[in-house]
Amino acid sequence: MSGNSNSRNLVILILLCYVFFMLGNGIISLSIPDEVFYAQTAREMAQRNSWMTPYMFAQPQFEKPVFIYWLLRIAFLIFGVTSFSARFFPALFGAIGVIAVYLLGLFGLRDQKKAFLAALLLLSCGLYVGLARTVFTDMVFAVFIQLSLTAFWWGYAFRDKKTPALLLFYGFSALAVLTKGPLGFLIPAAAVLFLLIRKELKFLFCPAGLWGLVIFALLAFPWYILMIAKYGREFTREFFYNDHFRRLLEAEHPANDTWYFYPASIAACIFPWSLFVIASLIRLARKLSCRKDPFYLFLACWIGVTLLIFQPAHSKLISYIFPMFAALALLSGDYIEDELRAARTGRLFFSLCLATAMIFLFLAAASIAGSFYFSEYMPSSAPLYPVIAALVLLSLGLLVLLRRGRLRGCILAFSPLVLIFLSSVPVVSRHIEPYLSSRPACEYLLKNFQVDNTILSSKFFVRGVKYYTGYDVAVIDIPGTPFFSPHPIPFLNTHEKVRELFRRQAITYCFLKRNALIDIKRIAGKEFKYAILNQVGSQYIVRVQRAE
Fold first, then answer.
1. Which of 119, 336, 348, 391 is deepest in the core (most CB within 10 A)?
2. Residue boundaries of the structural domains of the chain
């Protein structure tokens, strides 16, 4: 391996990570309902000078472990409380994950070009870019999983590195547990399955393995022990039962609870490399039957354990299977590079490239058609222009560079266009922000009206309203079910409960979806009068007061 080539590849990857994950990260305000949830929790922790207990709506909340909130608090201390600072660490971890895939490709595939291509595929796939540019636990969690398994393979492939590798394997697993819970050790158990199949489980039974368990316990357990000691059943019921065990039995999003949800999600979310991933998985079956290179078995265990954990659970979200994307990128990079090196490109590979290019053109055409069909709902079609241009360029670039066997060049030259357009053109953010964030609507209310009591909000907006106004909030959802994880705020799911709030307050300001606005019209009757003050995106800002 050339050290100069490695250095060059790493510099290119870091620059691309900046473009894909960090550039323009603060242009759009924190979105609803999840980004503001994490940011508000970190802000309330700072207000109470708490580094251990997460708070939301002025009460302890245990939906996620504490590590993501530590990162947010550190970012807020460095950069201030901004959208950019909240998204800084997910972007940074996204870059770390790309570098880790490159290193694992060097260790496992033993090929610079394959490792480099795998890293390019990962950093340019849809879900990876999306999670690197938003405030969720999933990117941080998946990268810790990835670092854990990378460390394991480093020690397995290079036995003189076994001691530091096992210590890192357990250490990163512990940090994953501190980021998202017990799954942080269940997914790295893919390494154990790999050793069992290889009949080499004794690899873990050594002094380094024992010290690794000590490191794991010292890093992962103290916070959980502290929360159990301080909050007892309140913590254990919410965190272990409601947010973990209950999700196995009940679907938080019933529409997702199908057998095909994850296969379809993989195909959609690893776009634009979906077809290549499918081909590489078919090829993996042949690789496993040969039993020559254990690295393919290792990747198969990684993918298989992830699916085995999440497929039976009734609560399904796309981000749950995100930890396997690094393994999928390595398989795809291996497959594509082999095809590019072949004396003659196979028909299947050419067909995959052609089909992907056609998908880009289809999406461009669909965007043009959509701009006309939905024109009455869109204030301007201007945000679609850079998207359409990027899709056409990507399609043409894929076809032109394919003929020269330079798919890597296609990724390098054209993929950044998508993020440059979407993240850096102000006209895009100006049009889409009102639909993604509650900030414009909240700023309008606070700038034009005097608010001094509880704000009534539709369920979807309530976290954003709290984050951007700072006032107490209540939820209107008729008829509705409470949040899957309880929120310590009034939940008004009948007409009479809403009327009681209106009677207690001389004026009530509301942020409503269209269906909730219809409910307010029915509730008002002759007792109250309401006025629609403004509509910002999909949010109706309404004032309700007692009739004279």
1. 119
2. 3-250, 347-433, 438-546
